[in-house]
Design goal:
The complex is a heterodimer of chains A (109) and B (119).
Chain A: E1 9-13, E2 18-23, E3 32-38, E4 45-50, E5 55-56, E6 61-64, E7 70-75, E8 84-91, E9 103-108
Parallel strand pairs in A: 1-9
Antiparallel strand pairs in A: 2-7, 3-4, 3-8, 5-6, 6-7, 8-9
Chain B: E1 5-7, E2 10-13, E3 19-24, E4 31-38, E5 42-50, E6 53-56, E7 65-71, E8 74-79, E9 88-95, E10 97-98, E11 104-105, E12 109-110, E13 114-118
Parallel strand pairs in B: 2-13
Antiparallel strand pairs in B: 1-3, 3-8, 4-5, 4-9, 5-6, 7-8, 9-12, 9-13, 10-11
Classes of the chains: A mainly beta (109), B mainly beta (119).
Amino acid sequence: DAKTTQPNSMESNEEEPVHLPCNHSTISGTDYIHWYRQLPSQGPEYVIHGLTSNVNNRMASLAIAEDRKSSTLILHRATLRDAAVYYCILGGSQGNLIFGKGTKLSVKP
Amino acid sequence: DAGVIQSPRHEVTEMGQEVTLRCKPISGHNSLFWYRQTMMRGLELLIYFNNNVPIDDSGMPEDRFSAKMPNASFSTLKIQPSEPRDSAVYFCASGKAWGTGGRITDTQYFGPGTRLTVL
């Protein structure tokens, strides 16, 4: 399974945008890019996913590089409730998701 | 929709005892996943089912672990006998599979987890 690289941790101020990077240089043509997050003491929660084009939903935006070797999850206005571990995952033809260590996002008031 | 339901939420048992964890997926979903999470190893996929059939159980640690899905609305993960190193939070997730052979699930919906402590 293709792997992803994310920073271990990031900090943000409340109500400011947050850009969470992810590198996936070995991505294959059929791999979707998924983002999940895990709030403290909860199960992971789906955030967004995409293949080639940038994607937007009510939670976040996903910007995918033209060569697809990297992507960025964008939280437009961070709130204290966005403090979580964010996982960038490649999902392919096998249908399963392999979670890495993710990025722990801290949000300061 | 109630979401994915897991029971029990907490389980404390003694080494050597049998443990059964239960999961009710979201109605209409045809794929189901069991994960284990520890501080040391993070979130690991143990097994996943598609239309009640096990597709990949390569993540199951050893023969002490077994999982079943007798119907679309129920799955169990059993550990027999349990050991202290099995202590972890076990998550169940479900989703709708599509793609060739129905093996791709876009979005997985996770349950609240079962915190297992084996003394």
